[in-house]
Amino acid sequence: MKNSNDDLSRFWLILSNAAPPIGIFLYFRHRGQYPNKAKKALVSALTGIPIAILAGYIMNTYILS
Q: What is the dihedral of CA 20, 26, 32, 33, to 10 degrees?
C-alpha cells in the first residue's frame, strides 16, 4: 500500500529545482519517514545545480556582456 504523504507536491518539486538548498533541506527533513518524497526533493535539487550554473554562464557570457 502506497503512503499518500510519501509524494512530493509539484510546488515543492519546482521550488527544489529552482533553489537547491530547499531541496536538500527537504531531503534531510523527510528521509526517515517519507523516503520517496526525500529522494524526489534531493534529485530535483541536484539537477537544479548544473542548470543554475549553466544559466549563470549564459547570462554572463552572452546577455550581460
A: -140
d(CA 54, CA 15): 18
Residue 19 phi/psi, 5-degree rounding, is -130, 90
* Interior angle at CA 39, CA 38 and CA 40, nearest 5: 95
Q: Please tell me the pTM assigned to this model.
A: 0.84
- Domain map of the chain by residue range? 20-63
**What are the pLDDT digits (tens) for 28-57?**
999 999 999 999 999 999 999 999 999 999
